[in-house]
Design a protein that fits this description.
alpha/beta, five-stranded parallel β-sheet, four-stranded mixed β-sheet, binds guanosine-5'-monophosphate
């Protein structure tokens, strides 16, 4: 059995999944992070090649046509996709790799890698809190905020298809739980 687990952290926008993934990577510097490709505009604090590979629409579509993506989705009007090369890198190094992807991307990874994938859904304690978190993040315009909120119901409805669901009450407790789940999965692999 391969030691590589594809640890997929997903959930609605504003649920805290990126913060959780960052903290898991801080605790486990040996895990890889799957740097996705996207056509969305880079945010100020983001680094190209670390947070995402920021691509033009043409570059992204080239990757689709040349089968370079393990999965991809159009979300809020932009392309996002996981690169096969990132997954191959993890399998070659026999290391686990963390994904921060949307719910549909997570389910695609499970379909493609049923043995290796471990799907963890991060749920906000309430829709009110999710709305507040997304507003406080100050990364969204009123339009992108509305687009993100429109998807929440669909996203929450897919939680049942995940291996585990964690409610993000506090960051530390959520990270501990995710860490525990990963530990258990790696031990039984
Ligand atoms: P954001 O624009 O906030 O960075 O990401 C928007 C959504 O796209 C989030 O739910 C994020 O997890 C998701 N996402 C990021 N990378 C990928 C990817 O490679 N594939 C898919 N399917 N979703 C992604």
């Amino acid at each position: 059995m391969s030691k590589t687990k594809l640890i997929v952290i997903s959930g609605p926008s504003g649920c805290g999944k990126t913060t959780i993934a960052t903290e898991i990577l801080r605790r486990h510097p040996d895990y890889f992070f799957s740097v996705s490709g996207t056509t969305r505009t880079k945010r100020l604090a983001e680094i190209d090649g670390k947070d995402y590979f920021f691509l033009t629409k043409e570059q992204f579509e080239y990757k689709i046509q040349h089968d370079e993506l393990a999965e991809w989705e159009q979300i809020y009007g932009d392309y996002y996709g996981s690169l096969k090369s990132e997954i191959e890198r993890a399998f070659s190094a026999s290391t686990s790799i963390l994904f921060d992807v949307d719910v549909n991307g997570a389910l695609s990874i499970k379909r493609k890698y049923p043995q290796a994938a471990l799907l963890i859904f991060i749920k906000p304690p309430s829709i009110e809190l999710l709305t507040e978190r997304l507003k406080n993040r100050k990364t969204e315009t009123p339009e992108t905020f509305a687009k993100r909120m429109e998807r929440v119901e669909m996203e929450l409805g897919l939680a049942v298809k995940f291996d585990y669901t964690i409610i993000n009450e506090t960051l530390e407790q959520a990270v501990d739980k995710v860490d525990e789940i990963i530990d258990r999965a790696l031990q039984s692999a």
